[in-house]
Amino acid sequence: MTEALLQVKDLSKHFSVTRGFPKRRTITVRAVDGISFDIRPGEAFGLVGESGCGKSTAARALLRLIEPDSGRVLYRGQDVTAASGGDLRVLRRKMQIVFQDPYSSLNPRQTIGSALIEPLTLHGIARGAAARDRAAALLEEVGLPPSALDKFPHEFSGGQRQRIGIARALTVEPELIVADEPVSALDVSVQAQVLLLLRDLQRRRGLSFLFVSHDLSVVRWFCDRVAVMYLGRIVEQGPVDRVLSAPMHPYARMLRDASPVPDPALRGALPRIVGELPSAAAPPSGCHFHPRCPSAMPRCSVESPGWTGVPDGGVACHLYAPDHATTA
Description:
about 30% helix; 10 helices
């Protein structure tokens, strides 16, 4: 098996929130609660789940845009969570992010040329005219003219701004791109163009991706493997074709069944996902999914399921535990 480019081990991120009036109390929000996965060189790895499941927090924590509380992130064997100073600076050249919102991810008072030249200068890659030439070449690579260098973000459409965000991520020649819902804010026709651009860049540059999304059809098309998150935990992981075609975990199955089918001949009434997503500040005991699960057993409400390995992946569900036959 190919050695992993990135390894995430038991990563957790909790937030403290003060609520209540007149008596205030502090509660803990378990946004990411001990997740593990790896990404291989040249691979697109998807992270999916409902809004609020913690997938975007996980993406930012592994890059240390927010500091994780515990766990380890290894990039080619080097511990990102323990790196500082020059070592962290070098690692950040290898891992870049494309944000969800192309409107807020760019400084409205900074020209596009300045936004692209700044990281080139800060990392000592190019300066002066050479940096401007390099920035122009990056714009052309993402489908924009060099004349865009002297314009401001408000002069571009949402799709064009996202292309600029992708160009900015490419300035430091990364090996891994974290794409946090990169097309969800765009029109459908523009989504297709940006996805094709990302696929082309992956092939030409040999990029790896962590692709965060709630759109299973996009993940099925773009990704090689996928992990399904629910309330801060990964409940299933494996090859995208297997997980999205024949999911094992009841939650993954519900997500799949509720995803629109593009073929009109196969369309029908979409099943409704039962219940609301519980708060990460007060997750259910045992298996977090048990209040909404059609296959819940008595043990599900009191015992958190362990990880059961399957070929090239695994599932966290009591239905697949080795002792299920004796305890069900």
